[in-house]
Write a structure and sequence with these properties.
about 230 residues, alpha+beta, eight-stranded mixed beta sheet, 8 strands, about 45% helix
Length: about 230
C-alpha cells in the first residue's frame, strides 16, 4: 500500500515558496473539486484549436461555407456561417470537459476515502502555508500488488512553472514504494503534462481513442497511456 508518513515536505529555497505536501483530509474536498475543475476547464482552448485544425472540421466547414455562398451569394453570410461552426465546436469542447469534470467529481472525487485511501492507495494535496489554500493534488489508486494509477494531478495556474508538479510526482513515488509500477493516462491536449511525464521517466506505451460523453462528437480525442517502473 502507499506507505508514506504525513511528514510534511516544504519547498527548498530554490523553489522560493512555502508549499507543503501532505495527505488528504476530508475538509479538503471542496478545494480539491475547485482545483480540479479549474485545471480541466483550462484545457478547453487547447481542445478547441486542435479540433478546428482537424481535417474533418476543415472539410465540413469548407463544404458548409460553399453551400451558404452558393445559396445566399453573400460573403457576409458565408463568414458568419464559418464563425457559427466554430462557435458550435467551442461549445462541444466546453461541454465535453465540463461533463468529464462533473462525472469525475461524482465517481471518485466525492469519495476520496473510499476510492483511493481505504483500498491502500493515497491522495496528496499541496497547501500554500501563507493562506491555507490547496494549490496542487495528485492521487495514487491501487490497482494490484505494487501497481498504482497516477490520477487527478492538478496544479493551480497561479503557481505553475515552479516545480510543484515534479514534487507531487516524487512524493507519490515515495508513497507507492520501490519495486512497483506507476501508470497513467493523459489527453493529447495536455501538452505540459505530457512533457512532464516524459521528463520524469514515464514511457509512452499506447494511444487510446476516447469516445465517452461529448468527446464522441469530436473527430478524434486521444489518450496517451504511460508507465514507469519504480526502483
Amino acid at each position: 500500500m502507499c506507505r508514506g508518513t504525513d511528514n510534511q515536505q516544504k519547498g527548498s529555497s530554490d523553489d522560493n515558496d512555502d508549499i507543503t505536501i501532505r495527505h488528504y483530509k476530508n475538509e479538503d474536498q471542496d478545494q480539491v473539486h475547485e482545483l480540479f475543475q479549474a485545471g480541466m476547464m483550462s484545457l478547453v482552448p487547447n481542445l478547441f484549436w486542435k479540433s478546428v485544425l482537424s481535417p474533418v472540421f476543415v472539410v465540413v466547414t469548407a463544404v458548409a461555407a460553399m453551400l451558404v455562398l452558393h445559396v445566399s451569394l453573400s460573403l457576409l453570410y458565408t463568414i458568419l456561417a464559418i464563425f457559427g461552426m466554430m462557435a458550435i465546436l467551442y461549445s462541444i469542447s466546453y461541454h465535453a470537459f465540463y461533463g468529464y469534470v462533473q462525472g469525475s467529481i461524482k465517481d471518485d472525487l466525492s469519495k476520496i476515502q473510499e476510492v483511493y485511501i481505504q483500498p491502500g492507495g493515497c491522495f496528496l494535496v499541496a497547501v500554500d502555508s501563507k493562506n491555507g489554500n490547496i494549490v496542487g493534488c495528485v492521487a495514487g489508486e491501487k490497482k494490484g500488488d505494487h501497481k498504482y494509477e497516477l490520477r487527478r494531478m492538478s496544479v493551480s495556474k497561479q503557481i505553475q512553472g515552479r516545480g510543484l508538479a515534479k514534487r507531487l510526482i516524487r512524493r507519490l513515488e515515495q508513497e507507492c514504494g520501490k519495486k512497483g509500477m506507476l501508470f497513467l493516462t493523459t489527453s493529447y491536449v495536455q501538452y505540459a503534462a505530457i512533457g512532464l511525464y516524459k521528463k520524469h521517466g514515464f514511457q509512452l506505451k499506447k494511444t487510446i481513442t476516447y469516445e465517452e460523453g461529448m468527446f464522441r462528437f469530436l473527430s478524434t480525442f486521444e489518450l496517451y497511456y504511460f508507465e514507469k517502473e519504480l526502483k
